Amino acid sequence: YNFVSLSNVDLLGNFKSYHEIYFRNLHSYRKNKRADYISYKMDKVVNYCINKKKGLIVEDLSFEQEFSYGKKRNRKLSNFKTSALDLLERKCLKRGVAIRKVHPAYTSLIGKYKYSRLYNLSTHVLASYVIARKGLKFKEEIPARYKWLLAQVGDVIKPRLKPSSSYRNWAKLHDFFKHSGITSFKTSEVLQKALQMKHVLNSVTSEQPDNLRAGLSSTGKVDNWNKFWNFIENTNIL
Predict the structure, then answer these.
(1) Over 80: is that where the pLDDT of 158 sits?
(2) pLDDT tens digit sequence for 22-33
(3) How do residues 105-128 score in pLDDT, each as one tens digit?
(4) Using CA atoms, how far apart are residues 166 and 108, in angstroms rounded to an integer?
(5) Does residue 169 register a pLDDT over 50?
(6) Name one GO molecular function term (predicted).
(7) Within this chain, do residues 10 and 44 fall inside the same structural domain, yes or no?
(8) Could you tell me the CATH number of the domain that includes residue 59?
(9) How many CB atoms neighbour CB 138 within 10 A?
(10) Residue-by-residue DSSP string for the chain
């Protein structure tokens, strides 16, 4: 990515504002000039914190992360983020800005599916908001509508985290989307996929599925769009 997203929050974890700092044509610079340019941009991050009279909370990149690019580009991106954050940490310490690192797990997922309806901001800004809340020790409980969603698929998705993990349900939700082939994350696609999987599960347990009430056929495809959208509206699913 060619920018840094910063979220300003209060002590109660409420979102106040955001700011984005862009790295324009970063890879067009030669090595030495690129280093100076990154340093200049990191100064902007520190200045933002000083102006807001706030500390800085960032990702702890010691945890392994996956990026959706090729191996070579993934490595370059990871190395860039690590070097930039190391530089940022040194600048914060030099100028008296408190800095704290947090585990980056599921920050984008939590931001997208817990706060997007509330704030209508980009995924990157919402992820930075979740990082800020993590740094203030707030726990991100999965909303009731997603607990319902996971309940519809029963044991189709096997949990891969321990029951004591605060990320257990978020990991299950992530795996559900991946398992279902959901890529657009539109309300209609998520609900339709959930009910399709529920139909498969119920065909094994001999329970009556909700497909008819939701305007879906016995195979989970939309038969009646009016029923389908009414079902979405009445259940307030996403």
Answers:
(1) no
(2) 988 777 778 788
(3) 889 889 988 888 788 888 899 999
(4) 16
(5) yes
(6) DNA binding
(7) yes
(8) 3.30.420.140
(9) 13
(10) --EEEEEEE-TT--EEEEEEEE-TTGGGS-HHHHHHHHHHHHHHHHHHHHHHT--EEEE-TTS----SS-HHHHHHHHHHHHHHHHHHHHHHHHHT--EEEE--TTHHHHIIIIIHHHH---HHHHHHHHHHHHHTT---PPPHHHHHHHHHTGGGS---S-TT-TTHHHHHHHHHHHHHT--S--HHHHHHHHHHHHHHHHHHHTPPPSTTTTTB-TTS-BS-HHHHHHHHHHHT--
Helix axes 144-152, 187-205, angle to 10 degrees: 40
Residue-number span of the structural domain to which 50 is assigned = 3-135
Does 154 score more than 80 pLDDT?
Answer: no
Tell me the pTM.
Answer: 0.72
Res 178: pLDDT: 72
